[in-house]
Specification:
- It contains five helices and five strands; from the N terminus they run βααββββααα.
- The protein is α/β, with parallel strands linked by helices and 155 residues long.
- Strands 1-4-5-3-2 form a five-stranded mixed sheet.
Length: 155
Amino acid sequence: MIWNELDSGLFAVGLDAKTKDDIMESMGGRFVELGYCKPSYVQALKDREVEFPTGIDIDGAGVAMPHTDVSHVNRAGIGIATLKEPVEFVHMATDDVPVAVRVVFMLAVDNPNKHLEKIQNILAVIQDKKALERIMSAKEADEIVEIIKEKENGK
């Protein structure tokens, strides 16, 4: 369950970003400000995204899940951004296939053994196209938390 780990202070609803770097700086900066991550986190996100892209296409809806090595993290957290306009990421497991991302799930993972579990939990939510569409159209952070809670509780 991820809904009970969500901190709406790490959310950006309707984020106006033009590039991946804008997203990393805005969201990653929030992780640093709130003490979840070390100052090195933002650059580490950018560097890792180049080497290991995190974009995925869920039936035509682009989602990205940027994260870094645990050495940049003080405590675990999940940030969510819905984007005003799509931003191009590279599809996971490719070098050059573009994905027009509308939702970003940013992870601060403090236990390397939990990183795949967190990604699997997020995928379980976003693979439901209706839940993903509701997240994309949400107007407030609390609404996103409620959508994820409903999905994880089987409603």
